[in-house]
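Request from the bench team (R.T.):
"We need a structural guess for the complex before ordering more copper (II) ion. Sequence and SMILES attached. Just send the tokens back."

Command: build protein-copper (II) ion structure.
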Amino acid sequence: MSRVTAIVFAAGMTSIAVAVPVLVARSAHPAAHRVDVSVQGFTDGKVWHFSPRTIRATYGDTIHVHFEAVGAGHGFRVQGENVDLTAYPGMPQEATLVADWVGGKEFYCTFDCGPGHAQMSGMIVVTRRAE
Ligand SMILES: [Cu+2]
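Reply to R.T.: structure attached below.
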């Protein structure tokens, strides 16, 4: 091995030695999580509401929604997302969506469940993933 070849080889090995730990450290960043949320739409005679009213996730998370209707049929649609469920008492529904935005997106009832129907909304709040 000539001296020049040895220097080039050494420089190459050094850059690999630097690059590999950086790449490993990068992939060790917190991975996206699965957020499981059980949402209930309530019609209890006085109050129409979702529980919880706020779903929190971090950017990139997969949100798995288990949606149950209590007291009457209820809908669960998420603004701008391909999620549109209708559940009836005893017949829960499931949906999965990826939190690929930062900020709030409203979810709301799409089933005419009674006088409190218009009050039935909530928010999915997605925060930035830490660098
Ligand atoms: Cu409704």
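Two things stood out. The pocket of copper (II) ion is lined by residues 74-75, 109, 111, 113, 117, 120 (CB under 6 Å). The beta strands are 34-43, 48-51, 54-58, 62-70, 74-78, 84-87, 93-98, 103-108, 121-127.
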